[in-house]
Amino acid sequence: MGSSGQAQTSGAPSTPDSDPRPLADRSVALIHEWFGATGGSEQVFLQMAELVPHADRFVLWKDHDATVDGDIHESWLAKTPLRHSKALALPLMPLTWRTLTRRKYDVVLSSSHAFAHTVKIGDPERTRHLSYVHSPARYVWSPGLDQRGASAALAPMRVALQAGDKRLSRHVHGYAANSLEVRARIRRYWARDATVINPPVEVDYFAAAPPAVRDQERRYLLGVGRWIPYKNFDLMIEIAAAARLPLVIAGGGPEEDNLRRLAARVDVPVEFEVRPTTERLRELYWGASVLLYPALEDFGMIPVEAQACGTPVVGWARGGLLETVVTGETGFLLDADDPGAYVDPIRRASQLSAQAAMTNAQRFTPQVFRETMAVWLDEQASS
Q: 8-12, 126-130, 333-337, 358-362: which range is least confident on average?
């Protein structure tokens, strides 16, 4: 749900206040893949850590520029050069999760977007293994969505990893998915069901902008995210040209040079904001008439952040946007790749109620996440 080249999207941390404390009488291991600086999955992990503060926390490795309060235990991979190459480390991840620690726990809770859900530690007879899934590894199961695994040369490895993924996760007692889209993938790939618990978004931070930011004129289209092919920033540029409206692209990534070349060929202004701070990103949301999001996302925190700022969303009628955007009220969703098809929805979206978008975003606050997660954990732990 995020990566080092993406715009920084995490706001000020939320406080638990009077949140329930699930698993208070159980020993808990909290597992996460690798801990980066700004990713959405890391924000989920931190919220889970607030919810279960007594849990021991484990990751494969932690990026050097990532800061986190409290102890976090790294695997043996952190001491090797493999920490710098997820692709090379991939075949070793299942083994690493099986040799993470000799400690015994009542509950093992994983935050997984690759193989963390295969972790198996503790007593086989009494340990409950629960997993919150951001997505089954896209480069293994859905290479059409993630070009990292799309090479035909990697097909034999994908088949082996798929078989291992299913076999090594049979011990998981309960799954939660971050969206209906991911729940459907879990059913399709693993033949398991899952409870949908949408991830937390720092809605209040984005909504509570200073008056000077809130009162600015909404004068451009906005695209936010990591500049990689499946995010379709090239399509956003073509949409802006068709709508004859200026575009701001915020984020960073390997497609930057290609996008700048494409932007130079259209006759509308295209401005690049490279790796904006969270504060700057909030300003950009408030200054946008519409957020463009023609991409298939597992969930997608960015459209929720935009709506928290009163900014409507125009994007694909696929994936997570079907859960976060109320078409006709907080934006418009369509199943089209033709830039011209977006022109009228952009015009109509800019006339929608900003308050409706802000109210809709409140469904995804950290408080809602913690309350829903607490109920699920208590139910699963007592099963």
A: 8-12
Question: Is the pLDDT assigned to residue 13 strictly greater than 60?
Answer: no
From its phi and psi, is residue 140 left (phi > 0), alpha (psi between -120 and 50) or beta?
alpha
Question: pLDDT tens digits for 250-299?
Answer: 999 999 999 999 999 999 999 999 999 999 999 999 999 999 999 999 99
Helix 278-287 and helix 301-308, axial crossing angle in degrees, nearest 10: 60
Structure confidence at residue 328 as a pLDDT band (50, 70, 90): very high
Alpha-helical segments (H) within the chain: 40-51, 86-89, 93-98, 138-141, 155-167, 180-190, 203-207, 211-214, 233-243, 256-264, 278-287, 301-308, 321-324, 343-349, 354-361, 366-381
Under DSSP, the state recorded for 178 is S
Q: In this structure, how many other beta carbons lie within 10 angstroms of the beta carbon of residue 66?
A: 17
Token pair 């990103």: residue = 281
Tell me the two tokens of residue 164. 């291992």
* pLDDT (average), residues 313-329: 97
Q: What is the largest CA-CA distance in the chain?
A: 66
For residues 94 and 73, what is the distance between their CA atoms, to the nearest angstrom?
17
pLDDT value for 3:
38
The separation between the first and the last C-alpha atoms of the chain, rounded to the nearest angstrom, is 30
Instruction: Report d(CA 173, CA 380) in Å as an integer.
Output: 8
Residues with Cβ within 8 Å of residue 133, at least 6 apart in sequence = 112, 113, 117, 175, 176, 177, 178, 182, 186, 194
